[in-house]
Design goal:
The protein contains 7 helices and 14 strands. It is α/β, with parallel strands linked by helices and 289 residues long. Strands 9-8-7-6-14-13-12-11-10 form a 9-stranded antiparallel beta sheet. A 5-stranded parallel beta sheet has the order 2-1-3-4-5. The radius of gyration is 20 Å and the shape is elongated. The termini are far apart.
């Protein structure tokens, strides 16, 4: 029996995104799944199949319920019957969001669908192809990516997989779209840019490409010069890196390099969210001296 979304959503959590891909592209699919998670969306891909579940039934159930189906076309997937069937299922429900990982000719029945180009995507949330995929998903599921939750200093949330990286991804996308314009770094009220971000923060690692979430993680931000700070942590996965800061409204933001950093300096207490090397997502609140 084939189960529709209305019935399924009453019993199981419905994913915002189902990712269809060939096994040869698992690493790239995983990177995309992590990026979607950082945007605040729930993602299902076959690595989440619980031991003991029937493989085909689990996939059928999820693809019929997911709010959108992102199909990754590549040299490997265009010859995969699984991927073609999943693409057809998504197209049949009107929730297909196709993207290419390699410069390939799509199967004939899917060539009329506008397809996002991720062939040179390296994880940057401001990349045009990634933005196109996000726009397609948003058009299907409605609303916008979930904004970052606030962290309470006295009781940091545990295992919150949606909090960290959401602000990082959203602001980076806004910058890429030109909604925010980064001007030259300049002093801000109460001190220079770097001064506003410095301090010790306590929070959580919500996502780690090579590990699990962690609670009660300290991050220290120290001033290098008026616009640059050094970020270090007692957690080896975050490690130490430096970022150049710009002011965006009342927030401080860095989108360059392989690590991303945002300081919400006007919140009480101030908050920091960051993505270390695109592998570890963290968020925390500033501690009193």
């Amino acid at each position: 029996m084939r189960m529709g979304q209305a019935w399924y959503s009453d019993v199981f959590p419905v994913a915002d995104i189902f990712i269809s891909y060939a096994s040869e592209d698992r690493e790239r699919a995983g990177r995309l799944a992590q990026a979607f998670g950082a945007m605040g969306w729930s993602v299902w891909w076959d690595r989440r199949i619980i031991v003991g579940q029937a493989f085909d039934r689990a996939i059928e159930r999820e693809i019929e319920a997911a709010k959108s189906v992102v199909v990754l076309w590549s040299k490997a997937s265009i010859g995969s019957e699984w991927v073609r069937n999943e693409a057809a299922a998504g197209a049949g429900r009107g929730v297909l969001v196709p993207a290419t990982l390699d410069p390939v000719q799509l199967p004939l029945e899917f060539r009329s669908k506008q397809t996002a180009d991720l062939t040179d995507w390296n994880g940057d949330p401001s990349h045009g192809g990634f933005q196109a995929v996000c726009e397609g998903i948003t058009a299907l599921i409605g609303g916008q990516p979930t904004p970052p939750a606030r962290v309470r200093a006295e009781s940091p949330p545990r295992n919150n997989r949606r909090f960290i990286g959401v602000g990082v991804a959203i602001l980076a996308v806004l910058v890429g779209l030109g909604i925010y314009r980064l001007g030259p770094s300049r002093p801000v009220e109460g001190g220079e840019i770097a001064d506003r971000a410095t301090g010790t923060y306590l929070g959580n690692i919500s996502a780690d490409s090579k590990g699990s979430s962690r609670s009660d993680v300290f991050v220290t931000v120290t001033k290098v010069n008026r616009t640059r700070v050094r970020v270090s942590s007692d957690n080896a996965r975050i490690g130490t890196f430096e970022v150049e800061l710009n002011r965006i409204g009342d927030n401080l933001f860095n989108a360059g390099g392989d690590s991303t950093f945002i300081a919400y300096t006007t919140k009480t207490p101030p908050e920091v969210v960051l993505s270390a090397r695109g592998e570890v997502s963290y968020g925390g609140t500033k501690q009193k001296k």
